[in-house]
């Protein structure tokens, strides 16, 4: 990403305030959501921050970027690296990921701002299997995730990363994850608020400590368990 193509960082208060509009779309059903999509399309065309894309729209939710634009990656040029405190550095193509054992989860998607999309299928490779393939070194305590938007990052403790409900996902709702939804590969951390499920995933790095991600540096909890963090009492997914 270069200079003018990036949007300005978006603060937590601004995001929380704008989500009231999206909540109305989720509650109001398809008609309201579709009308909302038209408004958001007009706004987002002149929105360098990507904030307008954070508002849930048709289908129950809308993805957004914290930068002005995100490059596309596909079959020819996508690579996922696994490095850091590992015995063998990995560079994986989409075909490599598809050749591994696939796991499907059907859980609710819960945003920290309050909206929820129930029974959303995701499938992909368990993160723990990629860590095992690379060989985690002694003393490793966390995993850091980076994205090809050039700005977003996230982290999990090693215990969190090895849970069975944490995926490097390639399909959502039984279809390949498209660019707008964070594809071709994104993280999916089922029991945590959705900001932990980093989009446009490009790097997995094993580290000796937890490094706060994009939203944690702006006030969100590092541990983001649904119903137990960020001051929310939502039912666990």
From TrEMBL:
A Pfam cross-reference name: Oxidored_molyb
Name recorded for this polypeptide: Oxidoreductase molybdopterin-binding domain-containing protein
Species this chain originates from: Wenjunlia tyrosinilytica
SUPFAM superfamilies: Oxidoreductase molybdopterin-binding domain (SSF56524)
Domain spans labelled Oxidoreductase molybdopterin-binding: 68-215
């Amino acid at each position: 990403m270069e200079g003018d193509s990036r949007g300005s960082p978006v603060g937590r208060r601004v995001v929380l305030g704008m989500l009231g509009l999206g909540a109305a779309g989720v509650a109001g059903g398809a008609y309201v959501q579709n009308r909302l999509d038209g408004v958001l399309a007009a706004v987002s065309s002149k929105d360098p921050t990507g904030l307008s894309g954070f508002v849930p729209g048709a289908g129950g939710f809308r993805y957004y970027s914290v930068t002005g634009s995100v490059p596309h990656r596909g079959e020819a040029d996508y690579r996922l690296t696994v490095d850091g405190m590992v015995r063998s550095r990995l560079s994986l193509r989409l075909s490599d990921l598809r050749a591994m054992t696939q796991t499907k989860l059907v859980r609710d998607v819960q945003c920290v701002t309050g909206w929820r999309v129930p029974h959303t299928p995701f499938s992909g490779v368990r993160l723990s299997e990629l860590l095992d393939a690379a060989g985690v070194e002694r003393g490793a305590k966390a995993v850091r995730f980076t994205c090809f938007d050039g700005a977003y990052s996230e982290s999990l403790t090693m215990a969190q990363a090895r849970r069975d409900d944490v995926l490097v996902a390639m399909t959502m709702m039984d279809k390949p994850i498209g660019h707008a939804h964070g594809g071709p590969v994104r993280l999916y951390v089922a029991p945590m608020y959705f900001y932990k499920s980093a989009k446009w995933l490009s790097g997995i790095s094993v580290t000796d400590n937890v490094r706060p991600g994009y939203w944690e540096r702006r006030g969100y909890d590092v541990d983001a368990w649904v119903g137990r963090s960020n001051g929310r009492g939502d039912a666990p997914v």
